[in-house]
Amino acid sequence: MILPVYVYGQPVLRKVAEDITPDYPNLKELIANMFETMDNAEGVGLAAPQIGLPIRVVVVNLDPLAEDFPEFKDFRRVYINAHILETGDEMVSMDEGCLSLPGVHESVKRADKIRVKYLDENLVEHEEEVQGYLARVMQHEFDHLEGQMFIDHLSALRKQMIKGKLNAMLKGKAHCTYRVKTVRR
Asked: Model confidence over 16-52: pLDDT tens digits?
């Protein structure tokens, strides 16, 4: 089922998400719905707070990038109770967008390498080092689990330049092709 994506201004996007227990109700269905919602919106990642749930569940699908990045062929992963344990020293800038910030794209500096710990969809624990584009996607999505968004990494000047777009979202004006849940004041 395609769920609405929560847009900037929704309080759940600023909450620190909670770890879930193995008996979390309907987890497989939730994961399937998250993938369907993300794919429908043409995203590469989606965190549970973006669909209104303050829990530590993230889905990532990099398969659409496989034509340019063959290493991402059939890459569809689930990250449950994910935490970044360590970040590398090398920082790389790249444009980012977010399903919860439709129409906003900005250059964000992130670590090129991270070490993470998480459970997969079968609740098997993993700890691994990730680098490059996947590390960026994971940091972006895991930020959502910490109540952060990519705009929090911008300079004061860049934030000022996008203020009009953010204020429009706060007024319920989000222009995109997928279902959203906005704040109406």
From this structure: 999 999 999 999 999 999 999 999 999 999 999 999 9
* Integer-rounded Cα radius of gyration of the chain: 16
| Contact predicate 36/29, CB 8 Å | no
Closest CA to 44 of 74, 65, 69: 65
The CATH number of whichever domain residue 141 belongs to comes to: 3.90.45.10
Are 98 and 150 contacting, i.e. CB atoms less than 8 angstroms apart? yes
- The pLDDT tens digits of the residues spanning 119-173 come to 999 999 999 999 999 999 999 999 999 999 999 999 999 999 999 999 999 999 9
Print the domain residue range for 168: 5-181
Partners of 83 in the β-ladder: 117
Q: With a threshold of 0.90, does the pTM exceed it?
A: yes
The catalytic residue among 36, 125, 141, 146 is: 141
128 is catalytic: no
Question: SS3 of 30, please?
Answer: helix
Task: Specify the number of domains making up the chain.
Answer: 1
